[in-house]
Specification:
The structure is a homodimer. The first copy, chain A, has helices at residues 77-89, 148-160, and strands at 10-13, 22-25, 31-32, 37-46, 49-55, 64-65, 68-70, 93-104, 109-118, 129-135. By secondary structure, chain A is of the alpha+beta class.
Chain lengths: 174, 174
Amino acid sequence: MAIKTQTPDFRRETPEGDSHERDVCTACGFVNYVNPKIVTGSIVRHDGRIMLCRRAIEPRIGFWTLPAGFMEVGETTEEAAMREAREEANAAIVIDRLLAVYTIPRIAQVQIMYLAHLAEPSFSAGPESLEVMMVGWNEIPWEEIAFPSVTWALEQYRSVEGVADFAPFSNPQE
Amino acid sequence: MAIKTQTPDFRRETPEGDSHERDVCTACGFVNYVNPKIVTGSIVRHDGRIMLCRRAIEPRIGFWTLPAGFMEVGETTEEAAMREAREEANAAIVIDRLLAVYTIPRIAQVQIMYLAHLAEPSFSAGPESLEVMMVGWNEIPWEEIAFPSVTWALEQYRSVEGVADFAPFSNPQE
């Protein structure tokens, strides 16, 4: 059952035994430990092409992204990346290796991006996608990419395409 | 100022627009999104030796671990690993590359482990460590290691010692 939520009244306090100030609810004393959140996703390959999904939801509705999303409790990072490909592109994928770990400090997000391939040549738009396509390098719509880290992942992957052993990437140097 | 916290009264509900049940506070309506938490740490090398810290805090007080701990908001994964080495071992380190990404689903923890080296040959026990030592392979106290993932990291690192380019590790196959 869905419920309507209200905004709790927090104050900044340092809980006992802690070294950082946290938001503490004035109504119930709940300590809201805010931790960085994990996004997992993958570059899904098939026949030299790469999967892109056009977003059906905000933010950046209508723009192209890799299948990726928030990791849930109870799954591994690899399982989370496989679930996202299933949910967003109705695609069964096989994880090949880790491509990159990015941090976006402004939004406290860590993005764990894998290289993967289609387990079978079948995909279609899931509920969070308007459409899904497999593209070659020359067909990537660079001007319509949803997020900078999608561009990072695509460009970094291109720099090591065909190389089996390489150190994973981090945020590109600005 | 430290405050004493009380336990909020949560019920399981699916918030509007969400696909998962979450804990919602019956007093204030706060939705407690529980996300996997990120631990960052490193294997810190110097002169062919590896840094181990003997834990001064629970869990596993008195056992040996790598400098590692919970990532905070506002830092990158690499900065978090550097901060942990500073806090636990008063050590300035340089991050070399990513070694492994582990998931411990039972405790909803993702561990991001780097290879690093000492920026200068100086270290000592911080407040969360009883002692800090640099050990060779034959001196590792395998029976007194705090957590399985510390053993994984040490053994996996040993398998690629001296190799520059390798794919990062994940949980070992059981």
